[in-house]
Amino acid sequence: NGDAANPACSGIEGVLEAYHRSLRSVQLYGPTNFAPVVNHVARSAAAVLDGSQYFVLLIITDGVISDMAQTKEAIVNVSPL
């Protein structure tokens, strides 16, 4: 949603709104390291195991992911969340 201190969105509508808002402001450049982002979201998801919330991580890149092996490993490791 653009707020690093409180990045939650409300429902699919909130996710789509955050996505459309970010399209107007995000500039893509490298290196592109996604593993830290995946792990950051995973820490938030791990704190809510009662099913009351769900977490969506949308990854958009304009080129090569610099830490592909680490990103794949992170996604596999956090997929149960």
TrEMBL record:
Q: What molecular function terms (GO) are annotated for this protein?
A: calcium-dependent phospholipid binding
Domain named Copine C-terminal: residues: 1-80
A Pfam cross-reference name: Copine
Q: Which GO terms describe its biological process?
A: cellular response to calcium ion
- Which cellular component appears as one GO term in the record? plasma membrane
Spans through the membrane: none
Write down the InterPro entries for this protein, in alphabetical order. Answer: Copine, Copine_C, vWFA_dom_sf
Q: What is this protein called?
A: CPNE8 protein
Originating organism: Scopus umbretta (Hammerkop)
